[in-house]
Amino acid sequence: MKRVYTSANLAEATLLRHALEQAGIPTHVLNTHAAGALGEIPMADAGPQLWIAQLHQETQARALIAEFLRKKPDAAERVCTACGETNPGEFDSCWNCRAWLPQV
Ligand SMILES: [Zn+2]
Which CATH class is domain 2-75? Predict the structure, then answer.
């Protein structure tokens, strides 16, 4: 087991885990329960952690994570189906009308 990334939130960690597993890299998300402790623990230690099972896949895993993070701003934007406003991808509901946003 090798830690390859610490995320700021569980949603991102889960997306990354799916991306890695689609590439054939078995991945675990650890520390998922620490989110409630933010404010007590330094951010870098508190976020969900991505761990890969196979050490020889570390380079590939890190490349995929870098690619994911680089593409994130574009992929993330979503248009509210209720009011037509554009929302950043990390939003679960529309900033304007609070409608639930469709998951891409
Ligand atoms: Zn809306």
Answer: alpha beta
